[in-house]
């Protein structure tokens, strides 16, 4: 009960503070608001410094009766620091013995705005707003509201917009596209939305997330918009695109990039097949399907598929006919050597990234808006891609093979790089 009263009092104080700032005749612009906030933040930090020294000495400023140390206060030194609301002048309290080391404003540090960086970092790791508030209070002794956390993390939105619109390279050797579904509040209703993720492999063999797009449930129509955006950002050619089994996906790719080879993900194809297979038969059928997708060439693979469909697994003929129906997009990888096959025949590389997204968002049952989802996925992307420091294995072999198959489409970029 007392805690509730305290919270209500704090909330009323915040509202009162907002009204006071709004009524101030000198506050006419956003800059004026920041200046007014600086006037409030300064005393807050000053009070924290005083509290630190009091804790260090063990007695209050005017409480000499409880003094149990031969150390004492020794005035102040002036220090100008940078904060999130601009520069400000602080008075750093000193002790006579020089043993006091400020934690809020460390001795040689002039930029104390890193609290925001820490908050954004925690947000990117998937911590809930409640956990972030608690951690900030534990580390800094500062109480922040959920609204303040949101405002701080919103500061990266311009950075995200810039990242989303950055120029891309003219050619990508491989591209992987997949969608991951989240729940997002829209017009007061929680609905399912898809985060469309595009990952490319450049001519030097390095992976790069090209964009994240929030839209309605996954559709070829939206993917076409994504592909057109990639074109507008500078991509002229994609050699091979590996995708899941979404209906209309190949047509969307061919519309935007007519010469691109479309490879249907084998892992997705197997999963789709097993939807129509009894649980007791799945293990054996998966093992038999290896005769198809691990065959040495396209002709043998197709022959083995016919054998499974017409002989051993006639009761799952309908499920296996899906392989036949989509053979044009299932079979392209048979034309290439092992090094290229390993890259293109599955979208596992982007599904691995999706697992990082799931890990970062596991504490979120839903998001208040698209921006909240985009912020978390962007920060998770930055964290995940920090480890992408090596190119694909045997990349020189891959590049040589691609240059034979695609000739001048790729060689003109190799010679110009």
What is the CA–CA distance across the termini? Answer: 69 Å
The chain-level mean pLDDT equals 80
Q: Strand fraction band?
A: 15-25%
Identify the strand order in the major beta sheet: 5-4-3-6-7
Number of domains: 3
How many β-strand stretches?
7
How helical, in percent, are the residues?
Answer: 40-55%
Question: What is the helix tally?
Answer: 18
Our Rg estimate from Cα atoms comes to 30 Å
**Poorly predicted runs of 5 or more residues:** 1-14
Shape: elongated
Succession of helices and strands: HHEEHHHHEEEHEHEHHHHHHHHHH
Reported for the largest beta sheet, the result is: 5 strands, mixed
Question: What class do helices, strands and sheet pairing give?
Answer: alpha/beta
